[in-house]
Q: What sequence folds into this?
């Protein structure tokens, strides 16, 4: 099987549990470190699928790598090479597929319930799951591209995920590990403390880290189901 390409846009926002899952399934993968200047491939056909991780930047920023990434996503969608987006990755997918990314009404940081939309596309991805606790860390949101379906929402963000065939874009994070969450809380400690004092949509570091192992284990259970469904569409060698 050709490898899954995993695009890292920030040194602290790597593949996390997604890489653990791929290794457990024996699926080869290659990490492309955009944050270290690695070029965006021009052709998706060298990979069985594309996975886009998060990052602190906006898809609307004037960054040299973004146009090439958008073109790669469009090519992958047209060639039916599965694309999977986490947070910024989901926003890149949305922008490439014809929708817009704008500032969300509030920043959403921490643990929060996500409701699964009642439609056939959502059932294809989530099965009988109706809601789950996800991890959030974003200030922007995507609109739903033409022909795609909204499949999840939360109290603070109406568009938490969309799907189009074998392609899945998520605003929330299912790839988190305890190590990643602790690192983010350390990196953004002052901002999170300040925001959590002013808005209910941002949790304090103490709340984020409460019952961390149990929460991430439950989150990884949701991730396994979504990743399994996504892997079923991978391109063969």
A:
């Amino acid at each position: 099987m050709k490898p899954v390409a995993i695009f890292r846009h920030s040194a602290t926002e790597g593949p996390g549990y997604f890489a653990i899952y791929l290794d457990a399934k024996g699926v080869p993968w290659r990490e492309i470190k955009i944050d270290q200047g690695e070029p965006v491939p021009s052709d998706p056909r060298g990979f069985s699928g594309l996975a886009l991780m998060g990052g602190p930047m906006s898809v609307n920023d004037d960054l040299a790598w973004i146009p090439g990434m958008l073109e790669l996503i469009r090519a992958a969608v047209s060639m039916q090479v599965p694309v999977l987006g986490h947070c910024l990755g989901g926003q890149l997918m949305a922008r490439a597929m014809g929708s817009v990314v704008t500032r969300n009404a509030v920043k959403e940081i921490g643990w929060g319930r996500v409701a699964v939309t009642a439609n056939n596309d959502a059932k294809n991805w989530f099965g009988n799951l109706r809601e789950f606790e996800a991890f959030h860390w974003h200030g922007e949101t995507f609109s739903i591209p033409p022909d795609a379906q909204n499949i999840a929402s939360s109290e603070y963000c109406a568009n938490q995920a969309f799907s189009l065939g074998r392609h899945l874009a998520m605003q929330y994070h299912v790839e988190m590990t305890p190590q990643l969450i602790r690192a983010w809380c350390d990196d953004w400690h002052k901002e999170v403390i300040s925001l959590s004092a002013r808005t209910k949509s941002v949790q304090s570091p103490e709340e984020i880290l409460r019952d961390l192992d149990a929460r991430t284990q439950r989150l990884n259970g949701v991730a396994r189901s979504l990743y399994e469904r996504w892997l079923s569409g991978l391109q063969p060698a």
The beta strands are 4-8, 29-33, 49-52, 83-86, 101-116, 131-142, 149-154, 157-164, 167-170. The chain is about 35% helix and 25% strand.
